[in-house]
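User: Quick one: structure for sequence A, then sequence B.

Assistant: Sequence A:
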Amino acid sequence: MATSLISGIVANEYDASCITACDIDTDKLERLARDFGISTSADSRVAIRGAEVVILAVKPQVMQAVCEPLADIDSARDCLYISIAAGIREREINRWLGGNRAVIRCMPNTPALIRLGATGMYANPLVSNAQKQLAQAILAAVGITVWVDQEGELDAVTAISGSGPAYFFYFIELLQQAGKKLGLKEDTARLLAQQTALGAASMVKNGNVVELRAQVTSKNGTTEQAILSFQQNDLASLVDRATRAAYDRSVELAQQFGEQ
């Protein structure tokens, strides 16, 4: 995700020389410097010197270890910290950074890799309007952004868009398998399922999903029979239960990290 953000920011003509990436993997840093022309450092305390924004693009399990060494750096007190780690509350990040920090939590998703991401964003009270606008500009480099008023809403964002791509991948997978069972060759079923998903998603951007479904669902036609089968088998409740399970797990992970 960090690479995607760097790629998107640089593509938006932001000065690459003003970006510094930090990682313990020196090979990765060399690739980033070569591919994007940015600065790199293996020392996080050095990397954030003079920074206006620090993006914490690390796994939740190492967030505490990454944040705590930055807590006593005076020049970093006025930074905006943007976390894209799932499950860790702003309160914990703030505490690990030494307190009284401007922190924004983001929940991006994997289509950010191709700049078609969807990111939910929450800002703590110490984030200024100018900092919110800056953060939005950064994340908009890889897709759309939406703000939520309460941090707990990010658990719902996780359940819908954060985990959502996998739901669609799974449905496409099931369509491919159904096509094979109906007699299609594997490659044919795969291409048809993939292109159908791509086309439908593209149409949704400029239309209403309910109206689009009605337009393709002719009375007594083939599509109507499939939709009726979905309804009779209570697909709506299945989706509700699945997204609730993702939501509950997001809440659970936040509680676990908060106990550390």
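Sequence B:
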Amino acid sequence: MFQIDIRKGFLVALLTAALPVALQAQEKDTTDLMASLEKQAAAEKINFTKATFHTTRLIDGHSIENVGKGVLDVKISHRFGTLNKGAYELFGLDNATMRLGFDYGLTPNLMIGIGRSTFEKTYDAFVKFKILRQSSGARNVPISLSYVPTIALKTLKVNDPAKTDSFSSRLYYTHQLLIARKFSNSTSLQLMPTFIHRNLAQGTEPNDILALGIGGRQKLTRRLSLTVEYYYQLPGHKIDSTTNSLSIGFDIETGGHVFQLHFTNSMGMNERNFISETTGKWNKGDILFGFNISRVFNIGKTASRIH
């Protein structure tokens, strides 16, 4: 009887010693399995890049961003006169042009917009369609890509009876590709190859303008970013009397608003104006101060405000 009790005691002691080891091994196996499943799930997940830029406009031109589905973005843009006007014109502040625009998201990848500028009393409309979206994970896409066709109608009266003044002669068409990459949380870059067609050209001026734009954003603080935008017109496809558009600005994010302050040599605020018809020269002081204000309103079911 004593021998049997010893054996039972030895068995109990052995089981007691082995149980924590078995439980620890099982816990490790479970942890390894969960880690493996999480790693597999992460590999199968597509991580889309967000907030490449603060708003749907870089400065004058479009950025890669879209407003979300069901979101209305109201934009008010001002350009004052040139700084070289001097103190008599309050360094350009006595003169101003403006554009009022309304952008709306039809789907997460498709938005439309209309606007009216006081400069040459121009109406414009555009469609922005996102073709590619930068992502990592299961789908590694290094860039975002959008296509933006724009139409502009100049309604300023022509007082010279010798000039052609038909409806079609007042129309301008622009086609742009937006190619962007967000390199980090602070740095983004965008290329904008652009084609502009003018139905009416004066004298030997070309009807078709070709330009390559480049722009970028460098985040300075959580809510402040430096932005730059430049359009180079290709030789042989530009108006001789024009210069290339260069704009430098700051984006300030304040809750539901994005406030953009900038300096530019371009007066107009639609593509055919600032890309193909800029005449201001930075080295001559033809620099205009301006700002854009963006306010979004959720008027439908949305996924997010910016895509």
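The helical segments are 2-44, 271-274. Residues 58 and 86 are 29 Å apart (CA to CA).

User: Thanks, that's what I needed.
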